Amino acid sequence: MWCRLRVNRVPEFVAKKLISAIIAISVVSACSVTASANSKYAAIVVDGNTGRVLHASNADAPRYPASLTKIMTLYILFDYLKKGRLSDKTKFYVTPHAAAQAPSKLGLKAGSYIMVKDIIGALVTKSANDAAAAVAENIAGSEAKFARLMTRKARALGMNNTVYKNASGLPNRLQRTTARDMAKLSMRIMNDFPRYAKAFKTRRFRYRGRSYRNHNGLLFSYRGTEGIKTGYTRASGFNLTSSVKRGNRHLIAVVMGGRSARSRNAEMRRLLNRYFPKAVAMTRKKPLAVRMASMDPAAARSRIRYTSAVTTSTSWKKRQPEGASIIKTSLASRSFGIGQFTGSSTRKGYDIQIGAYEDRNIAVGKLTKTRAEASDILNGHQPYIMRFSKNGVNYHRARFAGFSSRSGAANTCEQLKRKMKLSCIVMIP
Predict the structure, then answer these.
(1) Which of 67, 104, 186, 242 does the annotation list as catalytic?
(2) N or C of the chain: less Cβ packing under 10 Å?
(3) Which 8-state DSSP code applies to residue 171?
(4) 145 an active-site residue?
(5) Quick one: CATH architecture of 350-427?
(6) Quick check: is 221 catalytic?
(7) pLDDT per position as a tens digit, 103-131
(8) How does 372-394 read in b/e, with b if 16+ C-beta sit within 10 Å?
């Protein structure tokens, strides 16, 4: 016997809604199962107004940060901007090391220059590794030195389980962090540099005729998202830190070890949706020191002191006293960097000058490039920069020192002019 059942046709718009709901439920369920079964998974959700931890899963387990590393790179760069050591128009020199970084990258050319404002845009959207390396070398002289600076800063911020080995997050088995430490860093960078942290909202960044879309999909799909950063390597999985504000509520959340960008984003939305109702709505936040201390387990709170302002320890020497025309610093290092090459010559004799520039970074870059490409001609002569003022404008003379005779200095100048087409003159220091 056959039974014939009559089924009324479901309107098309109702069917579409039913299908969307089924897919959404399936994705959330899949993400929950994936999270519990994924050995790389870690997450934390923090109330940004109080510092109270609303959710933690493997929050103190060691993880690879991937490009979340660039949050610290930007923290140090923002610190330099805030203290007036750099401006958004400062030009950073691109070394061969920076240009050779693996993708994702802008494709910067060795010997070129890029302004700080463009570096910030490239880091928060494209997550450009060549731009990150340029920051490291221009500030600290080398990426290894900058990584040590990053680790010191991490300790100062209470990130006791984080070690940095590079400025980009490219694979390094010794570079580790935790979800809790990333939440601390995310809170600090948003609080310490509100002016510069607005860059994390950038959806698209244009550079030399090309447009780069921010990798953080929540900026386009989740209301109230202020950033912050995505990251991925094979070892880390898909990472994401988020700062989201709705009304007077504020959440800082971290998801690490996602199996895909899509599932990671879905997990982040699930956590934010779940814990927004539990966040405290308040117009005045608790002091930063209190909020930061609240993020640690109770057993750790008594061991760590937090302050709202931590001075960055860098390779820069003390700035010159008022009225001084020359900064005297050590010139022993052969590495490139803003903190190098500045001072007075320690060698007697004659100097050669290859240019004078308003932008100090250009002067540093000229010295670096000249020494690299004409090492046979310069034969170890000491590079240095002498600063002078004219009509209220600061200039930076790029020089090489230690020539025993005028004729010897003049001969070197002629060789540099022929080889590199430089403007070169002999100077008596």
Answers:
(1) 67
(2) N
(3) -
(4) no
(5) 2-Layer Sandwich (3.30)
(6) no
(7) 999 999 999 999 999 999 999 999 999 99
(8) eebeebbeebbbbbbbeeeeeee
